[in-house]
């Protein structure tokens, strides 16, 4: 089979190699899937650079999210059945940027029928992260104001749609006109282009000086610093990631004086500590997709041969929405 492999860390375009390699065999408890689509995520780029908290042994195939068709079962596996269309994360070091991948059977989820392969491949990580961030951590309520940074990106776009589905007023912050248009299409009520506007001032004006009730921040750096200036009384800032490359050092005295909360979100831990919540989130996300309230924004669908370029562009922050790699295209 064909697979992208990484023998040393560095910029994705420089270190990824497309090779012919042996098709993997499922171990007990695993399933082998034919990859129908793989969504490109920022952690893929961080893994290539050696900067992610998960560091697979070299060489490895990146790709942390997929939609696939089950083609073989490991020992002891009865579900999902052969032929089932599933989504989830593959078992590294054999990731999703390949024609075939391995998955733990208990960590596969039925692909929503309302979504095609590319859309379904982007439902798992970003939308689960958004669901836990907004509902479990921030307890977002209908009628509240939600501020989403990187609102046209993979993680932020999911938060925009989930916020609207929850009845919130959503203010999306983006960088550039194309991303601003994408955020509007996603349903953001107010869109701020940080290249030409001060989101702090926009939030204050839009809320009559009160500020945002919830901030969803996958960016860090200046985005976090500005958020502390426009957070409401008893507001909640959800720290999702640091796409800017800058990790803030919160001033806890400021949180005390303004009476707001800073909430960390490591979605992967829920699989360890509250598996039932992960399953419940998937059911709710499937229902929202069926009702047409959420749909991953797939801006590009590229063949396997273009995966390295796609990962690099996500690393550079030049993409809108999600890129899906289609190995069979």
Automatic annotation (TrEMBL):
CDD domains: QOR1. It is an enzyme of class 1 (oxidoreductase). Keywords: Oxidoreductase. GO terms for molecular function: oxidoreductase activity. SUPFAM superfamilies: GroES-like, NAD(P)-binding Rossmann-fold domains. Its EC number is 1.-.-.-. Transmembrane segments: none annotated. Residues 14-325 form the Enoyl reductase (ER) domain. The keyword Oxidoreductase applies. Pfam families: ADH_N, ADH_zinc_N. This is NADPH:quinone oxidoreductase family protein.
